[in-house]
TrEMBL record:
Pfam families: cNMP_binding (PF00027)
Domain Cyclic nucleotide-binding: 29-114
Signal peptide start-end: none
Gene3D superfamilies for this protein: Jelly Rolls (2.60.120.10)
Alphabetized InterPro entries for the sequence: cNMP-bd_dom, cNMP-bd_dom_sf, RmlC-like_jellyroll
Domain of life: Bacteria
Organism (species): Polaribacter glomeratus
Stated name of the protein: Cyclic nucleotide-binding domain-containing protein
SUPFAM superfamilies per the UniProt record, alphabetical: cAMP-binding domain-like
Amino acid sequence: MEDLIKKIKSRLHLRPEAEEFLYSISKEKTLSKGEVLIRQGQTVKKTFFVTSGCLRSYCIDKNGKEHTLLFAIKDWWISDYIAIHTDELSTLTVECLTESKVIEFNAKELDGIHARFPEFESYQRHNLERHVVSLHKRILNQLQLSAAERYDLFLKQYPDIEQHTRNFHIASYLGITQQSLSRIRVEKVKK
């Protein structure tokens, strides 16, 4: 929890009572590789801040194909925000790719922090803006860049992730087949 508190304090003055409130609505958890935090089709009430490890969110389409939406590493948040904010059932599964440590929050309680501590509004708005920018960049990259260029950007964004994840996770994140990923890697070695 100290990492999250430190991160928050780097952006705003955190009153002791606000810090106490964060501790009161959170649980630190150590999770095993393969553990599932959210399953597609369930109600979602939790959001998670990653303090170590690697998690991913993905969906399975009607043909049974997996599509990786996000990898979450240290200092990233992960959940199914569509399910949380629309009260629909989850369209995503969130699983641990490695042993991981997270801070679990009830999403509604965390969202209510603004009413008690208005200074959090700017912090949360900043996080939301970063998230929207990240999603927009991802969409634009999928539309405008070649698979090889997307792979290069992926390696910059997640420099050590290949040791923690399977090829089909990376390929599904990039929107390509595992065979295409293998070809891209062979070409990179040749250069």
